[in-house]
């Protein structure tokens, strides 16, 4: 008989701790809705005590979601616990995630507390959290570098105080599968409680072992796995949840455990997070990378054509990658376009469809055939722009060979106000970026710039990603367009607008 595993997503909390990633309020809400559609059981929507922005979005997510448990992170501090309570109290299923470090290095260097002080703090704060929540999850931070006897004591203290979920974080990605599995086995065997206690795994990928460690935890009794979409998160990231979901499904003969994940929503979830995080999914990434289902060698192609199962252990359709069907063209009308959106699984309201149809016509004028890839790219780009605080309104470029280039940039904000400036530079992109800097009145450092063709052919649509450093923080931006100059400008505008918005937040 198959048992059930809970999937706990922390894309909006630990995932947002990825250097350079900062989701806007609208993006957090959109991601949370998609996570619910994907079938995630628990969504860690943020750390409400950390900022007003986090508090507000946790609250909005709690008010919006219909099924998933919404949780928030809290240190062992009454004010943190109160903040999670206030932010999640309207959720259909609210819960709290309380943590304190237990390893010697954290006790000595960070907390300046003794082991017995940590145990009292666990008892005091889990007890308090239990007065506000039915479900309290407790995490001993840096559990894998905590001596096992003290880990057992800490976990027992939390359970005695009312925690019913115990999460074991491999905070620094230090453990290996047999060791991590052994920790679960030992804790499950030694823990004493009248209630059913769910043990949960939370792994970081510093040694590239996060997924393997999580699978070892499952083999040793874990009934909840924490992670993030595309494996984003602090430093090297968290367990990639799409890999867990597919490993459990494809190797159900071995694991015999089911999750609620709707596998055909996997690609859409990954795309959404990649876009809002401004972090491209590596081409060779398992499950959702662009190469995950392409076959290069002649021998592989030959085998695949004779029988796909020769080289494919799962189909692209399983994870929601749609095959290219009939392309649209410039004569295709509204109806054909609507049909295509439906076929590709998009449920888009009439207002947004109008905007998309206009953008589609624009592309169809430039391309002979508009493929399914183009439509996906169009939807990504357009919805991105609809959420953006500043949009590129007009761009004028004067190009001279062997000389300085000049650019005029016009931006429009959400309220329709326009901003314009011009500048020169040693190249077209430099002149555009200088003009944008003048509009925002900042001087960031461009630290990354990448162009990728997201559709096929010489008339492909382009995706440009940039990262800028401003006041010691990194901001990512992404721009989609048929023209790489436009895409480059849009990406830079997005990153710069995040930088100035953050500065405003700090100033308030
Ligand atoms: O990695 C970690 O230890 C965490 C805790 C807050 C659970 O993210
Ligand atoms: Zn973590």
TrEMBL record:
PROSITE patterns documented for this protein: AIPM_HOMOCIT_SYNTH_2 (PS00816), PYR_CT (PS50991)
Pathway assigned in UniProt: Amino-acid biosynthesis; L-leucine biosynthesis; L-leucine from 3-methyl-2-oxobutanoate: step 1/4
Cofactor(s) essential for the protein: Mn(2+)
Pfam families associated with the record: HCS_D2, HMGL-like, LeuA_dimer
Gene Ontology terms, MF aspect: 2-isopropylmalate synthase activity
UniProt region (Regulatory domain), positions on chain: 391-508
CDD domains documented for this protein: DRE_TIM_IPMS (cd07940)
Protein name: 2-isopropylmalate synthase
Native source species: Staphylococcus ratti
